[in-house]
Write a structure and sequence with these properties.
Number of helices: 2
Order of helices and strands: EEEEEEEEEEHEEEEHEEEE
Strand order of the largest sheet: 11-12-13-14-1-18-17-16-15
Strand content: 35-45%
Helix content: under 10%
Length: 240
């Protein structure tokens, strides 16, 4: 059995003011929560529910200057002795289909979400990047003919997004670099890549240093890390 490694690095810039990148009043952005995004009458978890906004829907920001403390959402409880995985967000007032209400912004993104295919699965990462960022500039380089070594580079949106694929002796790595996305958005992408209908497939092992380590059945290791430069990366790897 050959060792198979797949590593996806999404380098993300983190903004402390909001949970998602660069939105402002009047912007139209996307709901990424797969189970639906709850809109409430007032900025309170106890407020009546107005609407469950479907995944992929567009909402308009109508007030992004609410004076409030950030809300901490425990996404996963860690194993004993480890830190829990907690995301930070804020209430933001939005308009959806002529209804106005309040939602958590850590389920919002200026990025278009992954499409759901006819067989109720999400499109693959390469299809997503091409659809959202356009046709890439492609280059190919052979590194070792004997062991099938090569490097593929896909550059999108004037170098703002880069996909690198490397292969050697049955093993491969994939690296994706993206500009100006937050930690919360990196988790939304991570969750979509490893989506299961009831989240039973994903477990949070814990935080080690700046590395949030997860466990899913399809790969041997995966997680989200913060680099020394303050960027975030998503990674996963496994065997076959």
């Amino acid at each position: 059995m050959k060792l198979l490694h797949c590593t996806v690095f999404l380098f993300l810039v983190y903004f402390n003011v909001k949970a998602v990148s660069n939105y402002k009043k009047g912007d139209k952005i996307y709901a990424w929560n797969i189970a639906g995004l709850q809109m409430r009458n007032t900025p309170s978890i106890k407020s009546p529910l107005l609407k469950n906004i479907e995944y992929g829907s567009v909402v308009e920001i109508i007030d992004d200057q609410l004076n409030q403390k950030p809300l901490l959402n425990k996404i996963f409880k860690a194993q004993k002795g480890k830190e829990d995985f907690i995301l930070k967000g804020f209430w933001v007032k939005v308009r959806y289909k002529n209804i106005e209400g309040y939602v958590f912004d850590y389920y919002l993104s200026t990025l278009q979400p992954f499409k759901i295919t006819q067989n109720h699965k999400f499109e693959d990462l390469k299809s997503y990047l091409q659809r959202v960022f356009g046709n890439p500039i492609f280059t190919h380089k052979e590194t070792n003919k004997k062991y099938g070594g090569y490097e593929n580079y896909y550059t999108y949106n004037k170098n703002k997004v880069t996909l690198k694929e490397t292969s050697f002796d049955g093993c491969f790595d994939t690296v994706v670099q993206m500009d100006n996305i937050s930690l919360e958005e990196s988790y939304l992408i991570f969750k979509t890549i490893f989506y299961s209908s009831d989240d039973s497939d994903a477990k949070f092992i814990g935080k080690q240093g700046k590395d949030f380590q997860f466990q899913v059945s399809r790969v041997e290791s995966c997680g989200i890390s913060k680099t020394k430069n303050g960027l975030f990366e998503i990674y996963y790897g496994g065997c076959s």
